[in-house]
Amino acid sequence: MKKIVIVSFVMLLFVGAFIVFIYPKPFSKPERKILYWTDSMIPGDRSDHPGKSPMGMDRTPVYANESHAGSSTEAQEDTSYYTCPMHPSVISDRPGACPVCGMALVKKTAQAGMSIEQAASLAAVSLSPAQRVLANVSTSPVTRKNIEKTISAVGVVDIAEPLQAAVSARFRGRIENLFVNYTGEVVEKNQALFELYSPDLVSAQQEYLLSLDALQKAMAAGHEQNREVQERLLEAVKNRLKIHFGMSEDQISEISVTKRVHNTLRFLSPMRGTVVLKQVQQGQYVDEGMLLYQLVDLSKVWISVDLYEQDLSMVHIGQAVHIESQSFPGESFHGKVTFIDPVVNSETRTTRVRTEFANSTGRLKPNMFVSARIAVIRERVLTVPLPAVLSTGKRTVVWVEIQPNMFEPRNVVLGLSSDGLHEILDGIREGELVATSGGFLIDSESKLQLPSATDVHAGHTTPVNKVEEKKPEPHNH
After folding, report:
1. Sequence-separated (6 or more) residues with CB below 8 Å from residue 392
2. pTM here?
3. Which of 161, 213, 354, 421 could lock onto 339 through a cystine, CB 3.0 to 4.6 A?
């Protein structure tokens, strides 16, 4: 009995020892090891002891048993490097000064789980929520809207070339009577302008009467052959009066009836218009072909405007044009585009565009300056805000949010720009989110994260740790 009690007592001791020293250890919470202290608001911040970060925030510990932290730490240890913010081509594996500008090198860490080459192939930039808030990055969707732009230019009123006529002397002679005496006078069609005397005119009329008399005698005598000859002669003289001297059919008929020769020939206005040039005086002798009057119909005028090359694609024949003049404040005139010059002025780099305006009141006068406006409307086109577009010189880029806090650069083709919007012809789709603010900071972050993909000096980087300082040569005294 005593032996059984001793054995039971020993077994109880073993069970108790097992429960106290061995059984709790597998279920006890292991002690966590602190790898380093960091401020999550500052990427790359790290310290061996707790304290305040450069921003004044309390650093938090990063433990070794956190899987994501451990993997991130391992990746950071493998891919951390130091670079110059002003010269990304300068790369070092330890801190120091930039050999180019002398600035302190900044520590950068590639994204965990992705090499620099992989990130460059994806061409995307990932921001933490804290980075997005600090960079003030905001997005807006790509939408379809109507864009209206007004092209402004200075125009000059000009004469409509088809609506002008020149009155010249058909033959040599002397001005006997002058009926239109000053420049600017408005004349009607077929209104008398002047009367011209010429001995050649008198001789031609006498020749016509003689031919007419000979024809009548041949017809009375019944000589058929002679009649045909006289008819041809009369027709030739009549054509000379009409073509060379400019006599009308009525004037020739009057000579045939009255048998009288006119010493002067009256010249009539060929159109209704305004006399803009007068080069004749009463009693003046003129030569054949001499310009005497120039008439212009100002009921319709041309206005020429010069447009720059970038605006030509938005202008077409028949497009509406509005003009204003300082002579008529608050009043607008309406016309249309009728012609676009096929040649660009090599000195001003502009192209002349001709517009046409009705001017029945005559208020638009030749050589008057006006302000022209051409309205351009694009309906239902893809648009993004102006700040969303970044111009790098060689290409135009917008940053598209492909996933939450992950942005991808897209090359776009721009169209019209107006009212704070850019028309996008190619590169993005409707509904995609684009960064409207903070785009430059995203672009800078992409250059810092992927210097080899964006740096113009890629391929010939300068490793700082291999640059040796040149020691001064000793001087022999």
Report:
1. none
2. 0.59
3. 354
